[in-house]
Amino acid sequence: MGYSPDKLIISNSADELFKEAAACIAQYANECVQTRGVFSIALAGGGTPKRLYQQLTSSPLIEQIPWASCHFYFGDERMVPHDHDDSNYAMAHKSLFERAPIPAGNIHPIPTDCDTAQECANRYAQEIGNLPGLDLVLLGIGQDGHTASLFPGTDILHEDTRPVSAVYVEKFRSWRISMTYPLINRAKQAIVLISGSDKSDIVHQVLNTDNPDVSFPIQGIRPLGRLSWFVDKDAYAG
Ligand code: 6PG
After folding, report:
1. What is the pLDDT of the chain when averaged over all its residues?
2. 8 A C-beta contact, residue 26 and residue 56
3. What's the DSSP call for residue 56?
4. 98-140: per-residue pLDDT in tens?
5. Which whole-number Å values give the CA distances from 170 to 103, 105, 155, 173, in the listed order?
6. What pairs with residue 150 in β-bridges?
7. For a substitution probing ligand 1, which of 146, 154, 177 has the most ligand atoms within 8 Å of its CB?
8. Considering the chain, what percentage of its residues have pLDDT values greater than 70?
9. Is the link from the previous residue into 60 a cis peptide, with omega within 30 of 0?
10. Closest ligand 1 atom to Cα of 178
11. Which protein residues are within 6 Å of ligand 1, measured from CB?
12. Structure-derived torsion over alpha carbons of residues 149, 154, 160, 161, reported in degrees to the nearest 10
């Protein structure tokens, strides 16, 4: 048996996937705020989470989430302006931040206006400071098994100290800034959200590969607490 999450939730449809994941996050946010007064989450980028963020900011959940006590970080960012089409911040702003009553001070974008991506990474690491482990890290998965901007064959996979680092992604010929395994794996929980038949091959490989010589960056995700995969049927068809 390959790499396995603590919890694997398979939804019958994408609609059900986003509803179930949103309800789980809303409940966890309330638990965290009730016990510690705050909920900190690192958002995922790319396209999949958009519908999740829209679920969180639609009724009934928008009325149930303690927004003023929630702090939003980013698992990774592309080295583009925050109003660029490729920006994860721009996607989250449109599908989440402008749809819910979140105090501006609770939103912690990864800066992308430094001279170099590494300077931005260092600045973000300073901002995160000695944040105790995030309550939740939300992640996606690429068809090559990357997550956040932890891409196969990149040096960032071997970063064992810095919480945030820059990474040059050859196939996109672009720089990104990403949380690293040390920071992600200090999280209390991690949720991987996977939707669509284009992910079925990588899902099948990751969950079923027993070959020790074959590994994917997603398999390095081991939070202190629970690791949950929310997968719709199309992505799990494997
Ligand atoms: C990013 C994400 C990245 C994403 C996967 C899946 O900045 O792109 O952090 O890790 O989760 O590439 O992307 P899709 O959801 O668009 O398939």
Report:
1. 96
2. yes
3. H
4. 999 999 999 999 999 999 999 999 999 999 987 778 999 999 9
5. 37, 34, 12, 5
6. 147
7. 146
8. 99
9. yes
10. 9
11. 44-48, 75-76, 88, 140-142, 146-148
12. -70
Structure tokens at 130: 């000695």
Question: Looking at ligand 1, which residue's alpha carbon is closest to its atom 7?
Answer: 45
Paired tokens of 196: 């669509």
Contact 17, 230 (CB under 8 A): yes
3-class secondary-structure state, position 39: strand
User: How does pLDDT run across 11-66, given as a tens digit for each residue?
Assistant: 999 999 999 999 999 999 999 999 999 999 999 999 999 999 999 999 999 999 99
- Residue 164 CA: distances (Å) to CA of 32, 62, 78, 201: 24, 30, 13, 29
Alpha carbons 59 and 50: distance in angstroms, whole number: 16
Entry pTM: 0.97
Q: Distances from the Cα of 104 to the Cαs of 37, 70, 90, 129, in angstroms?
A: 18, 11, 15, 19
Place of tokens 């920071």: 183
Residues 54, 95: Cα–Cα separation, whole Å = 5
Residues in the chain: 238
- φ/ψ region of 178 (left if φ > 0, alpha if ψ in -120 to 50, else beta) reads beta
Pocket test for ligand 1, best of 141, 169, 181 (most atoms within 8 A of CB): 141
Tokens of 37: 């007064």
State the DSSP string of 79-110: SS-TTSTT-HHHHHHHHTGGGS---GGGB-PP
